[in-house]
Amino acid sequence: MKIYFKILLFCFLWQPSFCLGNNIYSISVCTTSSKEDANRCKKEILKTSNLEAFIQENPNKSYSTYFGNFNSYNEANSTLNSSSNFIKKQKPFIKKFENNEKEKDNTQKNIQQDMQVLNENFDKDIDEKIKEVDKEIKKIDENIILIKKEKALAEEEERKEQEIRKKIEAETQKIKSEIEEKAKNERDKILAEIQRIKDEKEKQELAEKNRKEKEEEIRKKTEIENQRIKEERDKALIETEKIKEEARIKVSSYEKKIKEGEELAEKLKKDKDKALIESQKIEKEKTLVEEELKKIETNNQKIKDERDKALAEVQKIREEKAKAFIKEKISTPKTNHITNLDNTDNFENLVIKIDSLKNIMFLKGKNKDGKIIDIKSYVVSTAKTSIKKPQGTGTITSISLNPDWNPTSKTIKVFKDRGIDLPSVVPFGDKLNYMGAAKINLSHRVDGQEVYRIHGTLNENTIGTNESAGCIRMKNKEVVELASFLNKFSKNKSLNNISVILE
Asked: Quick one: pLDDT band at residue 478, thresholds 50, 70, 90?
């Protein structure tokens, strides 16, 4: 490739000599004292013209730069009139070339010198480029090895996490099955006891019904008998003393029957008292059942509390394992103490990238040369795994130091359930202000809600874990540092020059 390029360059530089015949015209643009200045002039000409340009060394050791070969003066003049502003500013003129051996030898000599300089510069540039490419390839190879190692570690941790998740799910299912089985048995016992009580009650009602029917039957019989006695008594009074003795006998018989009726009534009374005692017994049994139900309810609550305790223990184990993973596998990112943080003119654009898996925030800047520079990194807290969180690229909408907190209606309801009445605005410094020392509002949305921020925290012990309700938490000192830097940058540039990537 190098040889091919040199051949092309040689042909290009020698082209004017091939074209030089009798009465050939060209446009003289620059006359300089050095070959380097002549080359610079040549490059400027080629930027705005498709015609060839060449350099000629003059006898007085100066260098003239020409462009174009024309067969007539008019053709050269027409091209000069339509040339670029750069050419016109150099006060160019049309020069007539005659084909003589001396000029040809000078031209060839100048071309050979040009070739030598170009060859030296070309070889030097190629060697430097090759060295730079080798360095970049080495860096890429090192990054590939590092990425493969990180991927392997991440896959192993994911496998372990899946095993733990399966064990937790199996244990949870076992506890759930035991609770359901026990609850079913207790429910069956209660239903059986309720059925027994119902049967006893129906039996009691039937007995009461039979008692009333018997009492009614006796009452009717007594009324009939009394009526018959009255009739007999009237008959005895009407009759003579003759039948008085017979009447006495009959009365005696009647009295006997009455006594029997009274005895029967006494028996019915005793049956009634017995039924009353039985009713009281049933009432006591009902009370015992209610007490048993309370015991069952208490037992169910105890089982629920034990389950909640077990789930809390499981969550604690998960959190401890997550913290251990962060501590052992994810080392704290190196913080670059860059002295040019105060000079935001060093950067044209800023990028904030948050890795929710590793709970790390990266601050990067793009300088005027287009190079990406790692400015600083922070350990942060991101959303709980069970919470739907925003992702993708967004922007910063506003930045506030010592901010008030405007909780959403959903947040106010959550705190209400905890027994805390949140106002619509929680001022800075209040013990319930979860914004900390600064807040950076983001454009990211979830389900149409724009409530996601980067802010400080009331509890810096949660930093490095997945504990937030969706926002990104930082240490108060670090969020003030970041907010101040972003504010300064936005004054020099714009908030639109800052991108926020949530992963």
From this structure: very high
Burial of 130 (0-12, 13-18, 19+ CB in 10 A): exposed
pLDDT digits (tens, 9 = 90+) for 264-294: 777 777 777 777 787 777 777 777 767 777 7
C-alpha torsion 171→172→177→179, nearest 10:
110
The CA distance from 421 to 407, in Å, is 11
Q: How far apart are CA 331 and CA 358, in angstroms?
A: 10
- Alpha carbons within 13 angstroms on the beta-carbon side of residue 47 total 10
Residue 22 confidence class, pLDDT cut points 50, 70, 90: low
Estimate the crossing angle of helix 101-238 against helix 244-329, to 10 degrees. 170
Give pLDDT, residue 251. Answer: 66
Distance from C-alpha of 185 to C-alpha of 363, rounded to nearest angstrom: 60
Q: What is the pLDDT of residue 247?
A: 64
Q: What gap in Å lies between CA 97 and CA 24, rounded to an integer?
A: 5
- DSSP-assigned letter for residue 51: S
The angle at the Cα of 41, spanning 38 to 42, to the nearest 5 degrees, equals: 85
Please count the other Cβ atoms lying within 10 Å of the Cβ belonging to residue 202.
10
Three-class secondary structure of residue 17 per DSSP? helix
Please name the helix (run of DSSP H) or strand (run of DSSP E) that holds residue 375, with its range, or none.
strand 372-379
Residue 454, SS3?
strand
Q: Are 413 and 422 in contact (CB under 8 A)?
A: no
Residue 18's pLDDT band, with cuts at 50, 70 and 90, is very low
Q: What pLDDT shows up at residue 315?
A: 56
Question: Which of 390, 343, 336, 385 is CA-nearest to residue 363?
Answer: 336
Q: Alpha-carbon torsion 31, 33, 35, 36, what sign?
A: negative
Is residue 103 within 8 A of residue 21, CB to CB? The reply is no
Considering only CA atoms, give the Rg of the chain. 54
Q: Comparing 77 with 12, which gets the higher pLDDT? A: 77
Contact 439, 455 (CB under 8 A): yes
